[in-house]
Amino acid sequence: MDKVALVTGSTSGIGLGIARQFAANGYHIMFHGLEANGAEIAKGVAEEFNVKTSFSNANLLEADEVKQLVRDAVAYFGTIHVLVNNAGIQFVSPIEEFPDQKYLNIIAINLNAAFFASKEAWGYMKAQKFGRIINVSSVHGLRASEFKVAYVASKHGVIGMTKVLALEGAGCNITVNAICPGYVKTPLVEGQIEDQAKAHNMTPDEVVTKVMLKKQAVKDFVPVEAIADMALLLAKESSKTITGSSFTLDGGWTAQ
Fold first, then answer.
1. Catalytic: 151?
2. Is domain 4-182+223-248 given the CATH code 3.40.30.10 in the classification?
3. Can you give the residue ranges of every domain in the chain?
4. DSSP state of 137
């Protein structure tokens, strides 16, 4: 049977890498993102890998839009087998200067949207006795860094949610796992490199080695392909006993 995957935040960065890997392996993909050319990205992947795709620019700040995103995927493809909760945002600031609305938005997109999407997909997965929910958390779901209170709180929350849903889905072949990457060189991170370079009066290379990758044992960015490969593994039927786990792809950060 053809498999369907919904990947939030899949028109760039990690999400796009995951969506492309799944499409290359025959999955039909519900794309989601805020890029203006999101529909074109989805169409291009459909043509490249000879699969079906659709696209939504649902606002993940709104619970009703998150739920509708899942319903739209099911309406278009007939069902949903894999849900990848990947969309996320970041903001860096000391707590006394942290804008309240930024905090609320980060919790809404990074954590709450994963809850609403999982809840909406649950019934379909339960009925077909197959479901794979893959939450893209972060090394910051396991460790903390200064000035990232909302992001760290949201990513820790994702791992807690992952464990609970894994227990609830165990009897109906629904697995729920988290992937925890270290730094990945996405467009979002590339923008941060330039900002940090100006803030610290460093070169971009110095920012990468002295700030971003300082805590990693392997001084290199985590390849998007490694995260996509892990997601594909977790989606397999043969992975039915892998659940409630957090997989770190972090260059040895959490080994210390």
1. yes
2. no
3. 4-182+223-248, 183-221
4. -
